[in-house]
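Sequence in, structure out.
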Amino acid sequence: MRRNIVHGGAGSLTYAIREIVQVGYKFRDLGMSVIWENIGDPVQKGETIAPWIREILHDVVDQDAAWGYCDTAGVPATRKFLADEVNRRGGAKVTPDDIIFFNGIGDAVAKVYGFLRREARIIGPTPAYSTHSSAEAAHSGYEHLTYELDPYNKWMPDLDDLRMKVKYNDSITGILLINPDNPTGAVYPRKVLEGMIGIAREFGLFLIADEIYAHIVYNGNKTLHLSEVIGDTCGIVMRGISKEFPWPGSRCGWIEILNRDRDAMFNTYVNTLVASKRLEVCSTTAPQMCIPRIMGDPRYPDHLKRRAALFEARAKEAWAMLQDIPGVLVNCPSGAFYMTILFEDGVLNNRQSLRIENPKVREMVEDLVKGVANDARFVYYLLGATGICVVPLSGFCCKRDGFRVTLLECDDEKRRWIFGTLARALREYLRA
């Protein structure tokens, strides 16, 4: 090409959660059976959709309006329903104009970071969720900025670390929090949220809260939305239906704008997000039309309670099988449907391995592990030896060694086999 056409942040667009799939496909082509523990798709792992939710969708798609464009920011009745939901909680007040729909949270993430001034940085947690960290790094052209989540304190944000990084880097304009957290399953109490809001208020920042798992909370914790505690600080909350209904294939998410009138610059920035949606006309109509009918149904609270109890039982089951392995730290999740297994410092090296029966797979693994991070080395050996596909923590913009696994497998016997096999593999690997 006569000119370089590659965006400066193109190299930052990595997504380890999906990239490991390509390796899994190669192993599958060599005769292996692969168990996909890399991605949070409840439907793929066997969860069936409640019949009453299906009936609502069937009724919606019978309406002609479901097949057409909707308003740029979203279906007006749905935006009013969601605004009323925010206002009923107490705290920050919103109007339907503060609700903007996107084609999934991934689309919202791309727009929220993509339309920031390039010099404006968002600091996020590490371990990071790849969609956020990659989009922020690509927007800025630099490595994503992170604050620490502390595995020795139930993966809570290290507020001292966050404050110092904000104080000494005046390019930081906003703070990202994911609550409940992906990949750790941590749920932040009021005191932690108020601490993060206090830092944002002190330094004139806004907050981005990814609350996609807000209603999958358990182990004695309760959902606490950012809107309930944010006060007069500016914020953007990201929510959706992919994990909650669950309907990941709907690609339907939205943002809630909090306190846009408190800062003229923030309001101008929000208006650019709406303008960007006009270029696309609108987001998907039918899933939006379903939201008031499903979330407003009297059966919905029991639906949420049942699913939370299900994931609580699985979290405790998995934690019991993994928590006493020497060299490994496991916190029992309190929300979402993931568990992060952390290797203690110094227990991994580049000589450890697992026995792989298939010689072609073994040869491929031995080639793949050359020069990779130590936790990625374990993940490749685990995949080659057992067929279990997980994601290394190094794929989550993290300098700690570990990996993430899901709690989604619906077949009880298969799920127990997965975690039992993980436990045996960890013991074998760490003895090597």
